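Async update (no meeting this week)

Hi team, since we skipped the sync, here's where things stand on the single-chain job. The sequence we agreed to prioritize is pasted below, unchanged from the tracker. I ran it this morning and attached the output directly underneath so nobody has to dig for it. Comments welcome in thread, and please keep replies under the output.
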Amino acid sequence: MVVNQQFLWQSAFFVRGSLTIGAATFAAIVALHALPLHAVYDVGNRPAPISSLYGAEYNAAMSYAYSRGQSLILAPMAGAGMYEVLVRMGGPAGRDPVTTNIEVGGHSIAIGDVGAIRVFRFLAPADAHGALAVRLASATLQPPGEPRRLGLLLDYLEIRSTGWALPALQALGITLMLMSSAWIAITLLVDDRRLALALLALTSAGTVWIVWVLRSQSASPILWLVAAAVVAAFGALVMRPPSWLVRRTLVAVALLLVTWRVALWVVAWVALQTGAWLSPLARLTVSDAKALSTLSIPLYVPFDQVIGTVWSQWDSRLYLSIVTLGYQHPPEEHANMAFLPFYPLLIRMALPFTGGDAVVAGLIVTHCALLAGALIFADVIRRDFDAQTAYRAIATLLCFPTSFFLGAVYAESVALALLALTLWGLRQQRWMIAGVAGFFLSLTRLPGVLIAPVIALALLERAGWRRPPLTRAYLAPLLPAVGLGLFMAYQWWRFGSPLIFMQTQRDIWDQRLSPPWVQLSMMIETIVTVADHWSGRWPTRMFQLLVWLTFAGLTAIALRRLPLVYGLTTISMLAPAYLTNVSHSLPRYVLLALPAFIAAAWLVERRPILALATPVALILLAWATALFVNGFFVG
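Output:
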């Protein structure tokens, strides 16, 4: 009883201290904006919050950069108030005049021809959200011998507040995200409540510093500290969940999903806000990276974009083309014959609930399927093993570097839910449920048809490897083949061939059936020669190789340590990804090998040191998500 009272006292002390520190942090942020802001940028020597500039240039007198004709001076977290903006600029070469307009506070001011370099000074109010934005619009010239069309020459920028300001909404949001993430992580990882409060106070000081730095910045890399904090909170929930939560497996899984989803939304927001900074790094890893010059600093990243449109990239457009246009062959613009119909059909069924918005409908289907699939899969594992293994397996799946596809307009979540339901039916000996789920699985992703022999072998295993009595259960192994057969029959009737989906894979993506060592040798060759490949540059190929080897090992563990149906399912889901000559989508395809994540959980429970791979996986997850939402191909 004394221990309980001491625990309650410590908990109450920590809660009161946390609330006090949180309130003090927000008070400090408000007080911070009463201090004068004075930011100076030597354009060319120091990154300036100006979008659409060419690279820095230098001469004996100064450093500078040219605009492209439409540039934006942006400080999105300056705070609601009045600011004095000083810009030193001129025309190309500091002499050629270009007609220029300045847009401030929604008003356009024509300042005529700007030729000789001189200083322009004007007052600019921040908007209601606390963002300071000044647009510089000018004509462009192409001097002799110059391949670029040049706008204004920008040499110097100064931003000075004229009085106190109210905190920007983004600043308050960042404060809330940092403090709440720190509170979650510290609460889960630190048992000593006095030390926990000390760490929270340190986080508070760091939060105030971050907000102060971001006041005069736009696409600052410091924003990634916010994303790191939120991802770290999710990582703490993965690595050290409360025991009372793990025992409530389905609640724990739902909480994991929500935390994972919020963390990736925050990563997406930061990645979009800092896209111009990410481009040089992206060029080191992916072969289709955009040039830095094609990216600009956004004034705002709309909330509906963060949770909506950015999750529709690459293959998403082909799925949506099936929804809106139907299957097309010859492919021309839409090579959508390679994609199976069940996921697009679900999206079309959801369209009346979204006002015809296919992206929103796709995301609703994706997230409903993900939640259902995770809960069903957790229930399967809990029944066969225990609650701890179930929690760890789902956590491992969500930490995998390509798990963001489970929240995008891709068919992976629907396939995951159907595969989980198939496994549930097999383990509960509900053969027709397994067969029907396999039927729709084979209409969602091509590996789904390979669940048919798994169902057949599970039936034989249940019958003691003798011929089971003749019942309707015999139909269950046939249903996955029937599903794919119906799609092939449709192609034959509509386009004259039952194998167009395979021909499209071969003709558009050069994907062919090959022994597994072909893919493996190609990855090793690219890495050894440090060569570029359309599947990715050598760092990406190293990641693909690591995934290839890891899941080969997890398959061996599943076959040796897990019930037979799990090992066979792992093989069937991985076979199409391994038996092809290309590996660019391998890290996404392995998400369907659900029993491999059970094997990973089993391995971590026996070798706890392997849990240290979680932070590395989360870093890769954040990086891959950042690339994806910015439009880069990552699988």
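Quick observations from my side:
Residues 279-629 form one domain.
Residues 129 and 168 are 6 Å apart (CA to CA).
Reply here if anything looks off.
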